[in-house]
Write a structure and sequence with these properties.
eight-stranded mixed β-sheet; five-stranded mixed β-barrel; 24% strand
Length: 592
């Protein structure tokens, strides 16, 4: 029997009609001569009424239990006024069931199939197929689907060609660790799963496809967190013969359409901020600032370089900085115990403490106030742009530690004090003019700030010459930020062999190493590559933000947990000795 429509879509327009419906039993309520069943499908809930006047259906109703799969036929009728549920589309009506059938029984699930269920995340991941039945999870994945549909429609309407790139490729040193796939045909050799389609899309530009687009799967073997997974999805695009400004304007229109189609939000692209990387770091302590928060970080190094308080003066003398964050209304909200918790919170960023002052009607008060003259105090108030009632939080020491600590404090205090601007709920920004290189504490060396194929600014090309300092160069790169998250990263690419070879040399590659890793790209450039550039937007992260979640696992159908395992299938698992033998591999037992 063909389903009439989804149960959750039944409303007053169906009154008097006979409908055929299928779905899951959400709840059953037995009143003897009358049994009510809430039927659930992907569109919502609908109340079914089993009445003793239809005696055949009562036997079926009596056997129904939560999560049973059922099919019913009946007439859509008005609910009793006392039974109306204004929260549901179907809340004005119900179905008077005349026939019913149980299609599949079900065990009692390990947690309730409802929104906001209080269940351990590992349990929900183990029974992910049940977790995905919950309405909020269904909404999350539909938001993801709408983003993809909107993105593809926009790209198609702007003459981009959808081209798939390989999932089995060569391992190339691009930053994160590769996931490796052993070859059975060539024992001892490996494919790598792509960290991104970067090299392939540059080759596509060299092939003459001047507008490429792909919803691309990417893989990186790195530590996980709430907005990171070992496998993730990018909205990936590349163009030829366009400037960075033109690409940014195109992407502005792209996200404008996505926001309209998915969030019913009309984005004013004229109000998308543009900050240099240095300005963003100076004002917010991060290259992905949340511009919904109105207060900023201020450098007080000059004002406090000679003060009696040694923590500040020594920090400046040792080449560090002293910066401050004036938290509006924080003086009354935060007790000393609360501030101690903030100090503990920023230890993860390398901070060894948290100096603070409260600006009250008595002036600056707090445990370090005695170290400052009246002139010092006024300089601090002016420099921090503090107002009465503010809590002034300080970072002193190494520049990167101070930046990360105060950025974290800015975000956490804004959330706790409800200081995030809801009048502009979606704050996009472009971060431009990045350094070409950055020092990695993990690798203990300089690495490419974006990737090794990013074009330096024209005026900085000389820094790649022999005898120059390449670390002073800035890049033609740009990140799109949304509400404090990096949404996309892009750049103008190197399209000339001589510049690419200089870039690789600056990263420590010998000519032989460069040929071994990237010879196919370097050779391709010798056949005439066009100027090119592009960007990749993080689909998972965008879906997370538009769904109002704080973890991308909520918008991925079958994600990994924080240990990079998948509790439902128990991946990764060991494999049989036969499979290892076919691949020419042996596995050593880990040492205790």
């Amino acid at each position: 029997m063909e389903r009439t429509t989804y149960a959750g879509l039944i409303d007053e327009s169906y009154l008097g009609q006979t409908v055929h419906l299928t779905g899951w039993v959400q709840k059953r309520r037995d009143f003897g001569e009358l049994v009510f069943v809430d039927l659930r499908d992907r569109e919502g809930l609908l109340q079914l009424t089993f009445n003793a006047k239809h005696r055949g259906v009562m036997f079926v109703a009596n056997d129904m239990r939560n999560e049973y799969v059922v099919a019913v036929t009946g007439t859509v009728v008005k609910r009793d006024p006392s039974q109306v549920n204004p929260k549901l589309r179907s809340g004005q009506v119900e179905v008077d069931v005349t026939s019913a059938k149980i299609l599949a029984g079900a065990k009692t699930p390990p947690f309730y199939i409802e929104d906001g269920v209080n269940a351990n995340e590992e349990l929900k991941l183990k029974y992910r197929y049940l977790d995905l039945r919950r309405p909020e999870m269904q909404r999350n994945l539909r938001i993801r689907s709408k983003i993809m549909a909107s993105a593809m429609q926009f790209m198609d309407s702007h003459d981009f060609i959808n081209i798939e790139t390989p999932d089995l490729a060569k391992s190339t040193p691009e930053g994160a660790r590769d996931y490796l796939v052993p070859s059975r045909i060539f024992p001892g050799s490996f494919y790598a799963l792509p960290q991104s389609p970067q090299l392939f899309k540059q080759l596509l530009m060299g092939a003459g496809f001047d507008r490429y687009f792909q919803i691309a799967r990417c893989f990186r073997d790195e530590d996980l967190r709430g907005d990171r997974q070992p496998e993730f999805t990018q909205l990936d695009m590349e163009t030829s013969f366009m400037s960075a400004q033109q690409i940014q304007e195109l992407v502005n229109q792209w996200v404008k359409q996505i926001m309209h189609d998915v969030a019913d939000f009309d984005l004013d692209t004229e109000k998308i901020d543009k900050l240099t990387w240095q300005e963003s770091m100076d004002r917010f302590g991060t290259d992905k600032p949340d511009l919904r928060i109105d207060y900023e970080i201020h450098d007080l190094s000059e004002q406090v370089k000679d003060v009696e308080f040694g923590v500040f003066s020594r920090a400046v003398q040792d080449g560090g900085v002293v910066k401050a964050l004036a938290v509006p209304g924080g003086a009354d909200h935060y007790s000393r115990k609360d501030i101690d918790k903030l100090a503990q919170y920023i230890e993860r960023f390398g901070a060894k403490g948290l100096a603070w002052l409260k600006y009250t009607d008595e002036g600056l008060t707090g445990p370090i106030a005695k170290f400052f003259t009246d002139e010092d105090k006024q300089a601090i108030i002016d420099g921090a742009q503090a107002s009465q009632g503010d809590l002034i939080l300080f970072g002193a020491g190494r520049r990167d530690i101070v930046a990360a600590s105060l950025d974290a404090l800015r975000r956490s205090t804004a959330a706790e004090l409800d200081l995030i601007d809801t009048d502009r709920p979606w704050r996009f920004a472009w971060i431009v003019d990045w350094p070409l290189f950055e020092y990695s504490e993990d690798f203990g060396r300089w690495i490419a700030a974006h990737h090794p194929f990013t074009m330096p600014n024209e005026e900085d090309l000389h820094y790649l010459d022999e005898g120059e300092d390449p670390h002073q160069a800035h890049a033609q790169s740009y990140d799109l930020v949304l509400n404090g998250y990096e949404l996309g990263s892009g750049s103008i690419r190197i399209h000339r062999t001589d510049i690419q070879e200089k870039m690789l040399k600056a990263l420590g590659f010998t000519p032989d190493q460069a040929q071994e890793a990237f010879g196919f790209l370097l050779e391709g450039m010798e056949y005439g590559f066009p100027p090119m550039g592009g960007i990749a937007l993080g689909l998972d992260r965008l879906a997370m933000l538009l769904a109002g979640r704080d973890n991308i696992r909520d918008v991925i159908a079958f994600p990994k947990n924080s240990r990079a395992t998948e509790p439902m299938t128990e991946a990764p698992t060991t494999v049989s000795p036969k499979q290892l033998l076919e691949l020419g591999l042996t596995v050593e037992e880990p040492e205790d």
